[in-house]
TrEMBL record:
Organism placement in taxonomy: Bacteria, Bacillati, Bacillota, Bacilli, Bacillales
Signal peptide positions (record): none
Assembly with partners or alone: Homodimer.
Keyword Chloroplast in record: no
Protein name: FMN dependent NADH:quinone oxidoreductase
InterPro entries named in the record: Flavodoxin_fold (IPR003680), Flavoprotein-like_sf (IPR029039), FMN-dep_NADH:Q_OxRdtase_AzoR1 (IPR050104), NADH:quinone_OxRdtase_FMN_depd (IPR023048)
Reaction it catalyzes: 2 a quinone + NADH + H(+) = 2 a 1,4-benzosemiquinone + NAD(+); N,N-dimethyl-1,4-phenylenediamine + anthranilate + 2 NAD(+) = 2-(4-dimethylaminophenyl)diazenylbenzoate + 2 NADH + 2 H(+)
Organism for this UniProt entry: Aquibacillus koreensis
Gene name in the database record: azoR
Record-level Gene Ontology MF annotations: electron transfer activity; FMN binding; oxidoreductase activity, acting on NAD(P)H as acceptor; oxidoreductase activity, acting on NAD(P)H, quinone or similar compound as acceptor
Protein purpose: Also exhibits azoreductase activity. Catalyzes the reductive cleavage of the azo bond in aromatic azo compounds to the corresponding amines. Quinone reductase that provides resistance to thiol-specific stress caused by electrophilic quinones.
């Protein structure tokens, strides 16, 4: 049995978002094909994801210096504990599905906040004399990205930074098996938007059966 994190960063559901509709097609098909797997939906707009701020750095510093957890302030305890929960959950999973829109050439800010919470030395990567080494080997990830224009290829591809960032970060974590599924161009080609959505949903179902 595998543990799967279905991580979405969109304020809208599948009735208003093409990306979320494609994500739902994927995860519904995946569940049907893998009924014994545990699928956990992390809706980043409904979760408490602390920013890494002064409280967090101070709390981590105290713990690293040998102080006990009880010596942290209430704010430090709450934030450090929550970040530890998030990173432990991420490390414990076997597969990851990220669903995001492309906003201003990147994903929504809440996704970066979440990724910061799981990028933890000693959990997802480590430093060595040869450089950083990812600790999440043997895992796999998929990124479903929706955008009104076409950014996965063509003249605008160099401007796209969301999928490229996730690809680099997953490899940094040791997740070599990483794939992208794009539902794009529906604003650029509004007369084809339903065909674009349908094709992406079909592709999602195909990928889900072998993911």
């Amino acid at each position: 049995m595998a543990k799967v994190l279905y991580i979405t960063a969109n304020p809208f559901d599948e009735t208003r978002s093409y990306g979320m509709a494609v994500g739902k097609s994927f995860i519904d098909t995946y569940k049907a094909s893998n009924p014994t797997d545990e699928v956990i939906h992390i809706d980043l707009y409904k979760e408490h994801i602390p920013h890494i701020d002064a409280d967090v750095f101070q709390g981590w510093g105290k713990l690293q210096s040998g102080q006990g957890f009880e010596e942290l302030s209430n704010e430090e305890k709450a934030k450090v504990s929550r970040l530890s929960e998030l990173s432990d959950q991420f490390v414990d999973a076997d597969k990851y599905i990220f669903v995001t829109p492309l906003w201003n050439l990147l994903f929504p800010p809440i996704m970066k906040t979440y990724l910061d919470s799981v990028a933890v030395v000693g959990k997802t990567f480590k430093h060595t004399e040869q450089g950083p080494v990812g600790l999440l080997t043997g895992k796999k990830a998929l990124h479903i990205q929706a955008s009104g224009g076409i950014y996965s290829h063509g003249p605008a591809a160099e401007k796209e930074m969301a999928h490229r960032y996730l690809k680099v970060l997953m490899r940094f974590f040791g997740v070599e098996e990483f794939e992208g599924l794009f539902v794009e161009g529906h604003d650029q080609m509004p007369d084809q938007k339903e065909e674009i959505k349908a094709a992406a949903m079909k592709r999602a179902e195909e990928l889900a059966k072998v993911f």
